[in-house]
Amino acid sequence: MAQSDTFTRWSVIASGEGGGRIASQFFDRTENPGIDDRILVMNTNRADLRNTIDRLSDQIQSEQNENEMMESHALEFGSQQGAGNFFPNGEACAREDLDRIVNRIKDLSTADAFMHVATLGGGTGNGSIPYAIDQFKRGLDDLDDEGAAEEWMDSVIHTAFGVWPYYYENPQRHFNAVCGLSRLLRTEDDQQNADMVLLAANSHLDQEENGGSRHYDSINDAIITAIDLMIGAGRETRSVIDVKDYVTIPSQMDAYHFTPAVATELNGDVYELEYMLDQAAENTYVPMDIGTTSAAYAIVRAPEAMIEEDVISEPDVYGAFRDWTGKHGINVAGQASLTPKRGRGSDVDVLLLLGGFDLNPLLDHSWDEFEMLGDSLAGQSRGDSADLSKAELGRLVENLEAYVEQNAG
């Protein structure tokens, strides 16, 4: 069997302006063999969707014009023009147009895994993505009068990448973020939602905290670098770590939230692998205590020539990962992988996926704002069909607190 037949095929589904901004930058890469052009950006606001398509058109070399790009890579959903920074509105829009969303995603039905992308401070992506994942995983039985429930969906793995707002942003965005994290992790009936939840925090990735599009682009590029490394590990036969490895054991442990930690362009002729892992660990995408990690994966990407000449080998990577976890006192369920990249140089890239860690250092930045707004927002209606009852808010809090307490280390 040709190796290409064994590749995991990913699709990216991004919702909201922030998610669309991240997705559009995928096209700035020379190649994404795990994704190709299987990217769908969704929004409730047509103007924001046009802005995303404009960015996407600037990045991709395509014969398609803007209208054709809208047709093939974009979806406007819901009858509201925007979610008003209130996540129940985003969910209501997704519920209203779930059949249209599913029919567009059918075009991506060759995918083995979805990467759902949303910024957690907003209303559109933060509202729609957790709801859509829940519906996809339930089998969409209520839509099969239109043929929407497809057998291929039963085996698709749903990962989600949620981006935390800047710490200085307004309390409403932190309220949304706490609710969004709870909804990505757990369904309303307290079952696992996304198969894997990846997290990044804007302020942690941008220590200057000055905001602005330049910083967003830099943060988004870091997110895409991590996703590229994660997906790339399943592209080759050398000690493959693939998406099923990422999700199976952590789900069984009920510890399936992760953050990337990345170091790139390290000189493989100079540095030891364990040092490279340490360098990556210093660049986690959220604030965390490494010692509370309960699931970890290490992906080392090295030039083909270095691997062929045995400068870096699979046993080297395994040994370095074992020594690294031992040195930090981390008793983890995890694996290590060596994957090649083109070229002969000596630049080595390292990705650590650290999971099941104590979430309190992240939540500490938002919990006061969340509690301050909780009573005032519960029971409000900010759209034709969107509201948030006190009982619903209570369930979100209970689900998140139970999950966090279990993974507090």
UniProtKB/TrEMBL annotation:
Keyword Coiled coil assigned: yes
Residue runs in coiled coils: 46-73
Protein name, per record: Tubulin/FtsZ GTPase domain-containing protein
GO molecular function: GTP binding
Organism: Natranaeroarchaeum aerophilus
Highest taxon of source: Archaea
Domain Tubulin/FtsZ GTPase as annotated: residue spans: 12-205
Gene3D superfamilies: Tubulin/FtsZ, GTPase domain
Alphabetical list of Pfam families matching this protein: Tubulin
Keyword Nuclease recorded: no
